[in-house]
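Fill in residues.
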């Protein structure tokens, strides 16, 4: 997988997680454990994107 395609894949995953966080956060009784897990996954994806960008 090329660097660009990896970044695109990670970016899509990041967007999906962002949407899930938004949806969960706007429910009448958001599940804080679900929100925490989703946010951690989103952070992990962002860190992976940063690592991919840093490689030459």
């Amino acid at each position: 997988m090329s660097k660009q395609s990896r970044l695109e894949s990670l970016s899509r995953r990041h967007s999906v997680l962002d949407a899930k966080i938004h949806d969960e956060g706007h429910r009448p009784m958001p599940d804080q454990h679900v929100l925490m897990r989703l946010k951690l996954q989103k952070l992990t994806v962002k860190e992976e994107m940063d690592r991919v960008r840093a490689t030459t």
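The chain has one domain: 3-51.
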